[in-house]
Amino acid sequence: MTILITGATGQFGGAALRYVLDRTDEQVIVSVRDPKKLDVDGVEVRQGDFDKPESLDFRGVDKLLIVSSGAHDSAERIQQHANAVAKAAEHGVGHIFYTSVTDADTSTLGVAEVHKAAEEAIRATGITYTFLRNGMYHENYLDSLAQDVVATSTKDGRIASAPRDDFALAAAVALTTEGHENATYELTGSTNWSFPEIAGDKFRDVSDEDLIAAGMPPFVVDFFVAIRNGVLAEVRPDLEKLIGRPTRPIAL
Q1: pTM above 0.90?
Q2: What angle do CA 220, 68, 143 make, to 5 degrees?
Q3: Residues 219, 224, 230, 232: is their CA dihedral positive or negative?
Q4: Are 122 and 64 in contact (CB under 8 A)?
Q5: What's 53's DSSP letter?
Q6: pLDDT tens per residue, range 148-186
Q7: How many Å is the maximal CA-CA distance in the chain?
Q8: Which residue intervals of the chain are DSSP H helices?
Q9: What is d(CA 101, CA 59) in angstroms, rounded to the nearest whole number?
Q10: Between the N and C ends of the chain, which has fewer C-beta atoms within 10 Å?
Q11: Other CB atoms within 10 Å distance of the CB of residue 147
C-alpha cells in the first residue's frame, strides 16, 4: 500500500505526514512544490505544483491525500484542485482523500464553492473517495483573541472549532485504516464557543462595515457573518469518533 500526501510542507500536511508515519509502515510519498523544504527519513519526495499539472506525479499511489490549496482566489483554487484530481485519474490512483469544508455542498460560506467543485470533480472520476470536511481551526482565532480588544461582528454566535492537529490526526487515521470508502465526514470540535465567552471584558461588538473599513479582508468578515448566523455552531460526532477522544477545547 502506497500513501501520497500533498502539501506536506504546510502546517496541516506536515502534521498529517507525522501522524501517518507514526501509524503505518507502508510506503509514504509526499508531493511538494519545493522538495528542498522537506527531508524525512524513509519518505520519498516528489516535486509537484497544482498550478503545473504536468509536474504532478501520482503514479503507483493507492491512497492520495489532496490537501486543499491555500490560494485566496476561488477560481485559482478550483483550477488547482481540478488539476490534481485529473492527474490522479490519469495515473490510476485507487482512493482520493480530500480536505474539504463543513457542509461543502450546501453551506453559505463563500469558500464552500471551491470545495463543492472539488468534491464534484472527484466524484466524476469514479475513483473511491473520502471527503474530510474540516470545520474551523482554533488557530484561526487565537491571534484575535489574544488582542487587548477583541472586536468582531459575530455577536454571540458559536464556533465548533478544534485544533488543526486534531483534524490532521483524523486524516491520518482515515488514510491508515479500513472502512472509509465513499464516506463523507463532517468534522467539528466536541464543543463550541463564542467570542464574548472566551474574550470576556475584552470583547467589542462591531459591524461588518466597521471591520472592512478597518482593513479586515472580506473573506474573514464572511466567516464572522457565518458565525453570527450559526453556520459553524453545530457539534458533529465524526472527528471525535475518528481520533478516538474528544477534541481539545480552545484556550489562550
Answers
A1: yes
A2: 35
A3: positive
A4: no
A5: G
A6: 999 999 999 999 999 999 999 999 999 999 999 999 999
A7: 56
A8: 11-23, 74-90, 112-125, 139-145, 164-176, 195-199, 208-213, 218-228, 238-243
A9: 27
A10: C
A11: 10
